[in-house]
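I am hoping you can look over what I have pasted underneath with an eye to the fold:
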Amino acid sequence: MDEVSKDTNENMTPVNSVNKEDCKVALKNGPIHDFNYRERVVAFLDILGFKQKVNESSSSQETTVRICSALNFLTYDYKQYNSFCSSTEAFVKSGRRVTAFSDSIIISYPKNEETMIFLVLDVMLLQAHLADLGFMLRGGIALGQVFHSGNIAFGPALIRAYELESKAAIYPRVILEKKYLQEYSYDLQYLNPGLYSIHPNLNDIDHLVHLVREDHDSLFYVDFLLVCGQGTINKLLALCEEMLSSTDEPSEIGKINWLKNYIHRHERRTIKNQDMLQKGL
């Protein structure tokens, strides 16, 4: 070994003798210095068919624009949520955090009475906007211990949200764990009257349970069509027909048919509610 190499190696600190106090100081002075879990409400979301859209984008400028619009939307500041709702600055002020990577999205808030509603509304409005761009979401919502700072997110509740998305949701729906509904028992009008101004279709909503629907498998999912206009619903129906004509996969057909049935149930409820209003019931 030459003299230079010998001197360099002699002055190197062995890995197993790194000073733990130095590590603590480095973490404390770094961009993330608090690795403690916090009680948060969290959603793990997956953009269905995203990889296929990315592959298509190489030969379609329209698809490229739609992908960019969808991903760019995740960085909005809530001062204006396009045409879907009015100002929702309370979302940002309440500690909302978002991490997006590839076709997955994590959204979380510190857990309290308001943010349990904020997260459901957040997901609902995100589903509506991406549906208008031709994308569908599947996901899970949970509550519990989560660490979420910048691009780093982990924790037991996030794992449960991920498992709800990957193992239970199956269809283009965002489902809530039972614990989430069991822990919420607040009147929205008393809690935050301003929530009614987010979207006109939410004027009569007075409880979290009215923002979700129970499915045939007894799972509850976010009823995002509540904030979708007829134009978006028509786009979704056209997308369903387009997808049905291009696949023979039973699992894919099942997902598409679930969405079609959800839309038809929503339309029937809307007609029924309109009839009741006209009759003064």
Observations:
- The radius of gyration is 23 Å.
- Strands lie at 38-48, 97-101, 104-110, 136-149, 152-154, 174-176, 212-214, 220-222.
